[in-house]
Amino acid sequence: MKPAIGLTQACELIRTKQLSPNEYLAQCVARADEVEETLKAFTVRARLSDLQDQSGTGPLMGIPVAVKDIIATKDFVTANGSPIYKNFTPSEDAVIVKKIRSLGGLIFGKTVTTEFAWRHPGATTNPWNSAHTPGGSSSGSAAAVASGIVPLALGSQTAGSIIRPASFCGVIGFKASFGAVPREGAHPVSGSLDHIGFFTRSVKDAVLAFNLLRNTEITEDDSIVIPELSIKPISEFLGHSAPRIAVLKTPFDDLLSTEQTNTLKIAEKCLSDSGAKIEELTLPKNYWNGIEALAVLMSCEAAVIHEQHLSQHPELLSTDVIELANKGNAYSASEYIKAKNLQKELRLSIGKYFEDFDAILAAPATGEAPKGLDFTGNPIFCSLWTFIGTPAIALPVNKSSNGLPLGIQLIGNYKEDEKLVSIAAFAEECFKKQN
To answer: Which of these is catalytic: 82, 138, 139, 161?
Structure first.
């Protein structure tokens, strides 16, 4: 894997005229040309001449951004991973795409997603070993950043679709608190759960992306405004000398591979050796009920979203989407309301654990990326945090015996994203020292 500059460095080099936007864009296109035949990260890419002609001004001047193909772009087909939309070009950009363009950024292309960001996979392969999945549903976005094509890609998460592919591909995946990043113009999976997030090469880059593209006003249902984030020294904002990290024990830990378990232990030791205080955390059963409640919300809302698709184009839908919608139609209104109530309850109550801990350390996936492209991996270790809406970030730690990335995720309290990214930057430095 060739090293590539990150978002912050690229922005600074272009701003100070040490790197010309046209030169940088040519490098990114050349990298895509080199790997894309095997990688298959993109459904469509911009031509180099078009990118160079469009380069604007602003903090993202000359920066190519890959956009998951459920997020509307007025100059590219937005197929949602489905043959139903194979020729559909939206009339306007999604809000977050408008933000990118207004800041001088360029849409490099649309990245492969699973069908409607659900289970049925696309063609993208893992950058570290093409016989393995890159994860889903943000398959192409994670692979495009990991392979060095672009420094920033947009993804989405409704269960584990940012954290898991970031871990499988060895990059940073950041899902801010629910509602903090604009979703308007992204095809929904479940309005109660959908997050838009970022793939980058460092925590600092993820913070920059969030600061530039976050919500700055309330324009959507459930949206929130979180002020710009900054990475601060631990001692400056915690009120105590060392971060307190809770290592989460779950009812599903028997699903973890030996290598993933060892990766968690390596991360614990690195953090402890750097001064962090580590303790185990076990959550009450009602929290784990949230995983089934997530399935209720997702399937019920998907049934409504796909009602027209099912009536007009059933032959163009995979069995995965049909089954999801059928499950949703089988739930009662009472079950849906109970799931919504539990979501609200847990979002409020999780804060009491963050009185004793600054972040939670957990597995991002069961282990390395599974072999084959038919299964994008189990999202169970991400699902609770998506359901609650707390911020989460994936960090690479080491490699498996097969040379595939293994990592961890850190989780913060709802709306305490700044504390989370500061601790993530602390952890990132710890992991770099041990490699």
So the answer is: 161
